[in-house]
Amino acid sequence: MLTTFQKSPAQLDALNRIEAWTRARFALAPEEVVLVSELACALPGCPPLETVVAFWTLDKTRHHFKVFKRAEEVREGDLPYSWMKPGLAVPEGFDPSCC
Fold it and tell me: Which end of the chain is more exposed for a tag (fewer CB within 10 A), N or C?
């Protein structure tokens, strides 16, 4: 049976808030894409739910980071510092399934 994943209004607000914080923190233009997701993790030692943020800059560089909390628990201070932006870039050929 297929099931749709309904998000509560609180979860949608949290995802939108994290997107806005990410845009502000990394000075992203409106046309730069930001994706915020809450994912389940089944790996040993991994929290049951984590928030994953990916964004693409105008030069098509992909950046990503994780916050090991549910989206509703994420606070602005949990995001990486703006000076870390170059370190969040995903190198070409990187396999993100490892981390």
Answer: N
Contacts (Cβ under 8 Å, ≥6 apart) of 82: 25, 26, 27
Distances (CA, A) of 62 to 2, 5, 20, 59, 75: 31, 26, 18, 9, 23
Amino acid making up residue 45: G
pLDDT at 5: 61
Which pLDDT value is given to residue 8? Answer: 85
Question: Which residues sit opposite 38 in a β-bridge?
Answer: 51
If you search the block for the tokens 């040993």, which residue do you land on?
Answer: 44
Residues 13-35: pLDDT tens digits? 999 999 999 999 999 999 999 99
